[in-house]
Amino acid sequence: MQVEPHLSRRPANFHPLTPADFLARAVAVHPDRPAIAWNDRRWTYRQFGGIAARLAAWLGRQEIGAGDVVSFMCSNRPEMLAAHYAVPSIGAVLNSINTRLDAETVAYILDHSGSHIIVADPGSIDIARQAGRLANTRVVLLAESEDSNEDRLDLLAGDPAEDRFEISGVADEWQPICLNYTSGTTGRPKGVVYHHRGAYLNALGNVMALGFDRDTVYLWTLPMFHCNGWCHTWAVTSAGGLHVCLDRIDPDLVFGALKTHAVTHFSCAPVVLYMLLNHPGRPAGALEKRVTVATGGASPTSTLIEQLDTLGVDLVHLYGLTESYGPATLCELPGRLATASAGEKAAFLARQGVRHITASQVRVADEQGMPVAADGKTMGEIQLSGNTLMAGYYRDAAASESAFSGGWFHTGDLAIVHPDGAIEIKDRLKDIIISGGENVSSLEIENVLHQHPAILLAAVVAMPDEKWGEVPCAFIETKAGKEVGTQELVAFCRSRLAGYKVPKRFVFRELPKTATGKIQKFVLREAAR
After folding, report:
1. Are 416 and 377 in contact (CB under 8 A)?
2. Of 331, 328, 268, 324, which Cα lies nearest the Cα of 297?
3. d(CA 242, CA 237)
4. Do β-strands 313-321 and 326-332 pair in parallel, antiparallel, or remain unpaired?
């Protein structure tokens, strides 16, 4: 078929994709449905649109326009959610900053991003002000006050429904929507550039993967600053669901919110699940309503799955990176395993699964760039290709070219492919331990250690050894009130691992983590040297 000139795109049949439109639609279609709950307050979608409109108008008065970077350093609160619509609606770029970072790192991000302004809530304002002085960036306090001025911003006063949300600055779906900095598990953070198209598609992929709809009640246990909340900031809105905002992760608050709001979904790192399960105030039996929980990072153990099932939690295991807008693959239990043992469920959910519905391609390739056999044994690197990948690293052309070399995005994660096509991570490239010429998976050892009843978290790294080159070193964080010694753990590992895989050293300490619960292995590698 010949593509004739009159078949080309035109204003009537092509609009750039942008997730900001999800809010515009929600305001038009169901303006009076509940949109946001925070503490004891609620806002409808009409009011949610008004909050975003107020912020967009305020940014315009600060002479913020298309392409300008705007930083937010806030907890999960209504204004942070509104920023995900207001900032891109005028063509500006949202830079969400980790609230647990130190002032020097925040200053680096402000300087590197060229941010025009940083808006911080009361919990982050002190660090933001220190960073602002270092980077010469204007700092604005987000707070409710009757005497708002240029250094204080109040978006929640009165009835925000009087303000109308509009999209005026999106000319190209490829233009930047967000600038997210990597979590710092490997050193200096890199600026990851998201485009409107990728954010739109990944959000809709989440809707289909997790079953979001108008009855969805999503509890914000995942920081919105982390991959824009895995794009759920946009996904829940697109479905017309209710966002339940939490200022902080506190088990009592989480369990209270689950009951009060009849929550249907939440997302979190495994460390949060362990925190909830080991909380003395957790319900004695099951939750009043079963909840779907999406988690990523460490593979769920059989003990974790059994405890979550008893609590009333259905687990979905996701895999992704900052560079893939969060979820790129997902693994959920098929119906045939509904009555399987906890061990069988854990074995299945240990997989990272199959590609997200809006992620174009996922493969595992060898060093020659060829797909590995789907035999459940041959290891290679997970590589991604598709519409839900970053545009590149900001101000780092070399790193961008390296990451996308050969027509694929290189994740640095080592995995196998099962005969049914599901992938399963075995380790990070940098975390493989080469001991006496043998490859030792730190993830395999960690999975064994997590089966011990006294262990909350375990991380294994390489430790230099004169004879073997490298040997495993395990860092252990125990559960509250639990104790375990080196000899017991050596015996525990020997009964489950080959001798050369048993850690030669155990270090008992609280593990260093990012705000999203990821263990900072680069800190532990330095400690093991």
Report:
1. yes
2. 268
3. 8
4. antiparallel
Q: Quote the Cα angle for 213-215-219, to 5°.
A: 95
Q: At what angle do helices 302-311 and 270-277 cross, to 10 degrees?
A: 60
Assigned token pair, 246: 């939490």
Whole-model pTM: value is 0.88
Domains of the chain: 19-268 (3.40.50.12780), 432-528 (3.30.300.30)
Chain-centroid distance, C-alpha 361: 20
Task: Give which of 31, 37, 68, 41 is closest to 163, Cα–Cα.
Answer: 31
Determine the Cα–Cα distance for residues 113 and 271; give it in Å rounded to an integer.
30
Do 468 and 504 contact (CB within 8 A), yes or no? no
The whole-angstrom separation of Cα 391 and Cα 501 is 39
Q: What are φ and ψ of residue 391, in 5° steps?
A: -70, -35
Crossing angle between the packed helical segments 45-61 and 20-29, to the nearest 10 degrees: 140
- Rounded-to-10 torsion of CA 356, 357, 358, 360: 80
Token pair belonging to 252: 């009592």
Banded pLDDT at 147 (limits 50, 70, 90): low
> What stretch of H or E contains 96?
strand 93-96
For 112-141, what is the HEC assignment?
A: HHCCCEEEECCCCHHHHHHHHHHHCCEEEE
HEC per residue, 17-71:
CCCHHHHHHHHHHCCCCEEEEECCEEEEHHHHHHHHHHHHHHHHHCCCCCCCEEE
Taking the C-alpha atoms of residue 460 and residue 250, their distance in angstroms, rounded to an integer, is 28
Q: Model confidence over 455-477: pLDDT tens digits?
A: 999 999 999 888 888 899 999 99
476, 186 in Cβ contact below 8 A?
A: no
Dihedral of alpha carbons 239, 242, 248, 250, sign: negative
Can you state the angle between helices 342-349 and 302-311, rounded to 10 degrees? 110
Which amino acid makes up residue 497?
L
C-alpha closest to that of 445 among 480, 473, 477: 473
What is the rounded distance in angstroms from the CA atom of residue 236 to the CA atom of residue 243?
A: 7
- Distances 272 to 298, 299, 326, 349 between C-alpha atoms, Å: 12, 14, 18, 18
- Provide Rg for the chain, Cα atoms: 23
Length of the chain as a residue count: 529
| Helical spans, DSSP H, in 241-299 | 251-260, 270-277
Tell me the H-state helices in 298-383.
302-311, 342-349
How many other β-carbons are positioned within 10 Å of the β-carbon of residue 161?
19
Q: What is the pLDDT of residues 268-321, one digit of tens each?
A: 988 789 889 989 889 888 999 999 999 987 677 777 888 898 999 999 999 999
Helix (H, G, I), strand (E, B) or coil at 519: strand
Find out whether 518 and 269 touch, Cβ atoms under 8 Å: yes
DSSP secondary structure code for residue 366 in this structure: -
